[in-house]
Amino acid sequence: MEWRGGAVEQLTGGEWEVTDFHLVGGNDAVWYTSTEVEPAQRHLYRLERGGKRYKVTPGEGWYLSALSSDAKRAVVRYSNLKNPTDLYVISSMKGIEVKDGSTEKTGKGYGKTGAIYEGAVWPLPEGLKRVTKSPAPDFYDLDIPVPQYVTMQSRLDGETIHGLFLLPPGLEQVDVENSYLGLDSRAEYPDHPVVVCVHGGGYSQ
What we know:
The protein is mainly beta. The chain contains 1 helix and 11 strands, in the order E-E-E-E-E-E-E-E-E-E-E-H. The protein has one helix at about 175-180, and strands spanning about 20-25, 30-35, 45, 55, 60-65, 75-80, 85-90, 95-100, 130, 150-155, 160-165. Strand 5 (about 60-65) and strand 6 form a beta hairpin.
């Protein structure tokens, strides 16, 4: 829309949510953050005047981005399931073009229950220059269970429900999908207490 007013033109669309708008840079490129990869990730995108868009932040994880006024540089707060939040500079603002219809799934794949990232390493993505290092020196020596993302179909309306498993030590390699379906052929696992957190609100996702 022209700044003086006029018709509104939709620039983005899909089964995902724009979570932040950053700026309009050179050549009228629009910079924004969205959940296009999946709801558990946030990435920086550039939408050009001709309609092409580019995923600028590398790898997998959660980015909170701050761009310079000319959009030639960006500092990000980055984290993933094994690396606490720290400041990084993005090495390249070029990005990778996202083709129309692409769901940008960079995870390890969805099964019948949608178990993803099971046993994932979650390395720091290439293309980031570290600015700060917040964890204590012995942080990475700790045996901390890594959460596992899962998705499953709602029995009520068939919509996709996203969830997170945080298993106790010793159960990290449980076959979440086959256990859920009752198909795990291994010996029975001992009972463990379960804490369930439910979010009953709604997002545009």
